[in-house]
Every structure is written in C-alpha cells, then in structure tokens.
Write a sequence for this structure.
C-alpha cells in the first residue's frame, strides 16, 4: 500500500502549507467552488489531485465536511493509497476524521487566520 499525506484547503493550503508530490487535497469546499479553488491552487503552483465535497455549498456544514474527508480517506485506502497524515485546521473536522479513520495522524494546524464557517471564496484570490 502506498503511503501519502492529505491536506485540507482553507486554513492549511491557504496559509502556506503545501502538499508534496503525490499527496492529495481533500477539501470541504463544495463541487460548486471548483473554479475559484483551481484558480487559487494555480496561483500557488499546486497541481495535486483535489477531492471536493459532494454537497451543495448551502447544504454543507463543518461536520459534514469532516465526514466527506473521512469517507474519501477510506475510499483511498480501499484503492491502495494509505493516508498516514492529514493536515487540518478545523477542530470539528479533525475530531470526525480521527474517529472515523483511527489509523490517520491528524496534524492540527492551529491559527485564527481563516474563517471556519461556510464562506464563499470567489473574491479571495
């Protein structure tokens, strides 16, 4: 099984922490936010694969984003990609990932630089 790292987008990548080659981004951002997310990643020269939340923007919560991340981590494991470290700034999502995926070391990035609640990112970049 190939070991990789996983990265949240807002509050992790947006504050300057970058994934390595072959690592994945699992964001709580909705599929509706793909254009602005791609633009932000392009500006940072980040080309890693991104897994987006399947919920509509207005339907997602911090907890549902945590479950999306845990589900994606489990699916990756079933495909032979073991997420060993996941970089996350939201304590609610961190707790969900730790509970649902106990093999993952969730690295808690603690700061007050970004909003934790559901916000649009269209004008951020």
């Amino acid at each position: 099984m190939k070991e990789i790292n996983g990265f949240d987008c807002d509050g992790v990548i947006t504050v300057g922490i970058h994934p390595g080659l072959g690592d994945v981004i699992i964001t709580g951002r909705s599929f509706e936010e793909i254009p602005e997310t791609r633009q932000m990643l392009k500006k940072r020269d980040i080309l890693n694969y991104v897994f987006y939340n399947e919920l509509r923007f207005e339907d997602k919560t911090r907890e549902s984003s945590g479950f999306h991340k845990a589900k994606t981590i489990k699916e990756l494991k079933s495909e032979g990609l073991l997420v060993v470290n996941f970089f996350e700034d939201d304590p609610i999502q961190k707790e969900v990932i730790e509970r649902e995926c106990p093999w993952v070391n969730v690295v808690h990035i603690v700061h007050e630089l970004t909003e934790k609640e559901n916000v649009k990112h269209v004008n951020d970049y």
